[in-house]
Each structure stands twice: as C-alpha cells, then as structure tokens.
Write a structure and sequence with these properties.
This protein has 192 residues and is of the alpha/beta class. The protein has one domain: Metalloproteases ("zincins"), catalytic domain (Collagenase (Catalytic Domain), 3-Layer(aba) Sandwich). Helix content is 41%, strand content 18%. The protein has 6 helices and 5 strands. Strands 1-2-3-5-4 form a 5-stranded mixed β-sheet, with helices on both faces. Helix 5 (152-167) crosses helix 6. The protein starts with 10 loop residues before the first strand and ends with a helix.
Length: 192
C-alpha cells in the first residue's frame, strides 16, 4: 500500500511449489507481516493436498466487500470473515477424512486438469475480512469455536488456513469432515 492509502498491485510470494498473490485493499490494516500470511497459506495448501506447482490469490478486505461477495455468490446477507472461491472441484484433490468421492470421479478430475510442463495451475482465491477478524479476536468471538480471545494476527492466520483448506476441497458441513478439518487447522497453526 502506498502512503496515500491506494492499493498497489498484488505482491507475489514464491514459496515453492506455490505462488501466493497477495492484495491488500486500501485502508485495510495488515495484522501480521505479508510474508507470514503467504507462509501459513503455503502450509495449508501442502496439508490440503494441493496440486503442484500452483498459485492462489489472497485478498485482505473489509466487511462491506465481504458482504457484497457473500450476497452475490452465496445469496446470504451480511459480511462473513472469509470466503474461498475454488477453481477445481473437491474430487481434484486427494480424499480426506469425511469425504466420500468415488475413485472413478477422482481419476476423471485429475485427467481433466493436466497442464503443459512448467505451467502453474491457479487454484482459486481467498478473501478475508480483516475488519471482522480484528473484531472477533478482541471481542472473544474468534478461533474455531467462536469463543476465543486472542490476537488479530492469530485470527487472520486461522482464516487464511481455513480458506486455503476450502480451496483444497475441505469442508465442515458433515461432523466427521469438520472434526478432521479443525484438527488439521490446529496442526498447521501449531507448526507456525
């Protein structure tokens, strides 16, 4: 970001085998160093079984932007803390606890996304409301259980990991998959 508050183009972080394109919207504070965000996202992609090499977009925004996206793409009113926009179907990723993707569908999805050598596949984009993350953290509505008081940086890290796992086909609609996703999030965050 410039001193005038305008958004600069995406900052690119090459963390082999991934590239993270980080964009920070004007007026949005950075809760932790940009490189730390890229590293934790890389950890989520590795743990989630993302194909390699690949790129992802990470946008740090505010509540009004998340509210617009939530309404436009999910038909829900109001802001949320994180949204993921995966470009590959869940069956393009390795199976994980709680999923029931037939092997034939997985094999079909893998063949459908073959790229020429040296090409980087774009997995999708994650948009985080830093405004909401800060509020949740300081009001004690953060963490996986929505009752944790911790630093805004910790909350943003959790949301980036959560969004990264969603890009990799993880979800929390079913109890078994939610338990597995939450456990993996804790492992990633504990590793730094």
């Amino acid at each position: 970001m410039t001193a005038s508050g305008r958004t600069l183009g995406p900052r690119r972080f090459y963390l082999p085998p991934f590239r993270v394109d980080l964009e920070i919207r004007a007026g949005v504070p950075l809760a932790l160093p940009a490189a730390a965000l890229a590293r934790v996202l890389r950890s989520a992609l590795v743990a989630g079984g993302a194909p390699e090499p690949a790129s992802v977009g990470l946008v740090l925004a505010d509540d009004p932007e998340l509210a617009r996206l939530n309404r436009t793409f999910l038909g829900k009113s109001g802001a949320t803390d994180v949204l993921s926009f995966p470009l590959l179907p869940p069956e393009a990723y390795p199976p994980h606890p709680g999923t029931r993707v037939p092997a034939a569908r997985r094999a079909s999805a893998e063949r459908a996304f073959l790229l020429p050598p040296g090409t980087r596949l774009h997995l999708g984009d994650i948009v985080v409301s830093v405004e909401r993350a800060v509020l949740q953290a300081v009001e004690g509505r953060g963490g996986q259980t929505s009752d944790v008081r911790w630093t805004p940086a910790d909350e943003v890290r959790l949301l980036v990991v959560h969004g990264g796992l969603h890009l990799c086909g993880w979800d929390h609609a079913e109890p078994a998959e939610e338990a597995a996703m939450r456990a993996l999030e804790r492992t990633i965050l504990a590793a730094g």
